[in-house]
UniProtKB/TrEMBL annotation:
InterPro entries in alphabetical order: FHA_dom, OmpR/PhoB-type_DNA-bd, Sig_transdc_resp-reg_C-effctor, SMAD_FHA_dom_sf, WH-like_DNA-bd_sf
Xref: SUPFAM superfamilies: C-terminal effector domain of the bipartite response regulators, SMAD/FHA domain
Chain ranges of the FHA domain: 28-80
Protein name: FHA domain-containing protein
Keyword list, A-Z: DNA-binding, Transcription, Transcription regulation
Organism: Paenibacillus plantarum
Length: 232
């Protein structure tokens, strides 16, 4: 089956964000390129092991194995046990070497999903601890010592993304949580346009600083917040 499943690179040199890799083989190797070995998905980061993970087709299911990588693999924020099978599901986020490389897994392909370019793809080797605190009760952020009040929509967006930090939040969930007053559209969830959602994300990035909330739009129809935030 040619269109079995795919990986989208969210962050990982030398690939452009959004690069799609079709998992059309029985086994797909992911690791670091070297003189002796070129994996099917080959990264250049030195912290990625030459044989980092493998994804196998097992009874029409994609199953991930960490191959004993030196710096580890996380699946939706959970550190994996080496050489143990982990079945994959739509919207799963795979992080290699403590988030230096981030991959999005999907059984759906670009022509079946929203074509969204990432709004913020960080190129740092790790996600920094930002000088940011959030007070949900006061609905305000403290950025570099400066208190910034959140609007209603900013609060709702940041809240739903923060609740799933470092994981993909589907578009439908964001729309229903941020615009609960909207009546359901033809697809059964809040009738909100992609332009409205993109504009809100843009305002958040502009108001609080482009590196304060690292929000990525991930192929597959959702957004992800990469951060290590303090909240109260």
């Amino acid at each position: 089956m040619d269109n079995f499943a795919c990986l989208y690179v969210v962050r990982g040199e030398p690939y452009r964000a959004g690069t799609c890799v079709n998992l059309n083989q029985e086994e797909t190797n992911v690791g670091r390129v070297s003189n002796e070995l070129t994996p099917d998905l080959a990264f250049t980061n030195a912290f990625i092991s030459r044989k980092h993970i493998i994804i196998r087709k097992e009874q029409d299911k994609a199953v991930l194995y960490d191959l004993g990588s030196r710096h580890g693999t996380e699946l939706n924020g959970v550190l994996l046990t080496p050489h143990t099978p982990y079945p994959l599901n739509n919207f799963d986020i795979i992080r290699l070497a403590k988030g230096m490389t981030v991959i999005h897994f999907s059984y759906m392909f670009a022509d079946q999903t929203l074509e969204i370019e990432p709004l913020s793809i960080t190129m740092q080797l790790e996600i920094p601890k930002l000088p940011l605190e959030i007070s949900w009760e006061k609905r305000e952020c403290v950025v570099d010592g400066k208190r910034i009040l959140m609007s209603e929509k900013e609060y709702l967006l940041i809240r739903v993304l923060h609740e799933h930090t470092n994981r993909l939040v589907p578009m439908e969930e964001i729309k229903s949580k941020v615009w609960p007053e909207r009546s359901p559209g033809a697809e059964g969830y809040s009738d909100v346009t992609l332009d409205e959602l993109n504009a809100l994300v843009y305002r958040v990035r502009k108001k609080y600083g482009k590196d304060t909330f690292l929000i990525s739009a991930v192929r597959g129809g959702g957004y992800m917040l990469e951060s290590e935030l303090k909240s109260s």
